[in-house]
Amino acid sequence: MIYRTPEYCRDFRCIAGKCRDSCCKGWEIDIDADTAAYYESIGGEFGKRLRDNIRDGCFVLTEDERCPFLNAEGLCDIYTELGEDKLCRICSDHPRYFEWFEGLKEGGVGLCCEAAAELILSRPFALSETDIPYEEAAGGYDEELFELILSARSDMLRILGDENIPLVEAISAILDIAADAQESIDMPFPDNEANDSGDALSRIFGCFSELEPIDVNWLPYIKDCNEKLVCLPEHESSTDIYLRRIAQYLIFRYLLKSVYDGEILGYTKFAAVSIIVISCLFRYSALKGTELNLSEYSEIAKNYSKETEYCEENMEKLLELFADEPFFSISSLKAMLYESLGVNVDNI
């Protein structure tokens, strides 16, 4: 079967103790059954430590929500004691993600990891394919629908990858492609217009402030940005390349999932909304008056990813809002794109 992945993934390396936001902090870490059985078989003092720190199939986090095996140097004691191949599946895979279809496996590295985020923002988006042994698909799906979505995604990635097409026009175009694809499989969907793009932007930030936070600093941060929307500096066109690559990442990662849940337009709106919100967060950070660099832009994108796509409940809530709220309509999103990225809305 074919294994398809962005080319930059081959250069991903975990930075371990150098990571400022370790994935071994603040997350519930599930242990797969095979690894749990192996840990039960370990003898001696380390085996006792393993069993004392596992409950209900998860590691028991410390009071400050660290994995009990994350040492003071930011390294994993299981890795150093037993070896890399003895990590549980989630620790071995993260931040990699995978999707399986008939004859096709896709994968990449997730934006919520700071090392991966720098790769995603700094490298051109290009796909590579290799042949791998057959792996079973995740579930049954309509093959005709799959081909329709795959074709729509190819068109979207082509448009996003053409830097001669201004970013606002590219995002607007992929929303139209998604709407056409969605309408071809559904009854016509409601897409009522919001009256004021400025108010809509504030309401979108209000929605994000009501999601379940992963990091305690997120809600104060997003709420303060909302309060300062009217005084944000102008959009820096130099950040368009970073936003474009984030959009490519999101469309590649999520659109094929819609073969299972039908959310073609929902996942595309997620990409568009993400570009709007992240561009505002870039501008909000610029209020400090210092010039931002790749590392700081990547940190902003990473934090956004962590609070949205890496919380299943938050993603479900957003997809519901995209379908229900008029300020998430295609026309409203287009107006906000033009406004947030510094183009007069009269040019739509």
Describe the strand arrangement of the main beta sheet, using strand numbers: 4-5-1-6
Mean of pLDDT: 91
Termini gap: 43 Å
Gyration radius over CA: 21 Å
Organism: Ruminococcus flavefaciens
Protein name: Lysine-N-methylase
GO molecular function: methyltransferase activity
Keywords: Methyltransferase, Transferase
List the helices and strands and how they pair.
Blueprint: E1 2-6, H1 33-41, H2 44-52, E2 54-55, E3 58-59, H3 77-82, H4 89-93, E4 96-101, E5 104-109, H5 114-122, E6 127-131, H6 143-161, H7 167-185, H8 197-209, H9 218-227, H10 240-254, H11 258-261, H12 264-286, H13 294-307, H14 312-324, H15 330-340
Parallel strand pairs: 1-5
Antiparallel strand pairs: 1-6, 2-3, 4-5
List its traits:
348 residues; two-stranded antiparallel sheet; transferase; alpha+beta; 2 domains; 51% helix; 7% strand; disordered C terminus; single chain; 15 helices; 4-stranded mixed β-sheet
Short structural description:
Keywords: Methyltransferase, Transferase. It is built from 15 helices and six strands. With 348 residues, the chain is α+β, with helices and mostly antiparallel strands.
Describe the structure in your own words:
The chain has helices spanning 33-41, 44-52, 77-82, 89-93, 114-122, 143-161, 167-185, 197-209, 218-227, 240-254, 258-261, 264-286, 294-307, 312-324, 330-340; strands spanning 2-6, 54-55, 58-59, 96-101, 104-109, 127-131. Helices cover 51% and strands 7% of the residues. A four-stranded mixed sheet has the order 4-5-1-6. A two-stranded antiparallel sheet has the order 2-3. It is globular, with a radius of gyration of 21 Å. It has 15 helices and six strands. The chain has 348 residues and is α+β, with helices and mostly antiparallel strands. This is Lysine-N-methylase. GO terms for molecular function: methyltransferase activity. Keywords: Methyltransferase, Transferase.
